[in-house]
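User: Please fill in residues for this 104-position structure.
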């Protein structure tokens, strides 16, 4: 996958950071009512045009968050060259932003 047309790499990094913050707020709200088995989050890929909802198990989300450079994305929302594919699942993938992605 490639970032949205006309997209600047800094915008992609900001989008990932913004959607991570949104997902963190969703997670915090969910925790107030107890830990659900699964939660719907927004894809944290670098495509600024993406707003795909993805479902992820709570234990998997906690594991992703334990690694600051890991992001949960919809399947196929992987940016080769800027990310490393860590895990591929049927409903979501986990990617790690590499040095090239952090420099963007």
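Assistant: Residues filled in for all 104 positions:
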């Amino acid at each position: 996958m490639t970032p949205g047309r006309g997209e600047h790499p800094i915008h992609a990094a900001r989008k990932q950071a913004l959607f991570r913050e949104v997902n963190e707020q969703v997670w915090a709200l969910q925790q107030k009512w107890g830990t659900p088995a699964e939660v719907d989050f927004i894809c944290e890929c670098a495509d600024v045009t993406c707003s795909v909802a993805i479902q992820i198990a709570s234990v998997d989300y906690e594991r992703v968050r334990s690694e600051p450079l890991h992001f949960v994305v919809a399947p196929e929302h992987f940016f080769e060259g800027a990310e490393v594919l860590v895990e591929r699942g049927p409903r979501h993938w986990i990617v790690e932003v590499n040095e090239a992605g952090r420099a963007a």
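For context: The chain has one domain: 9-103.
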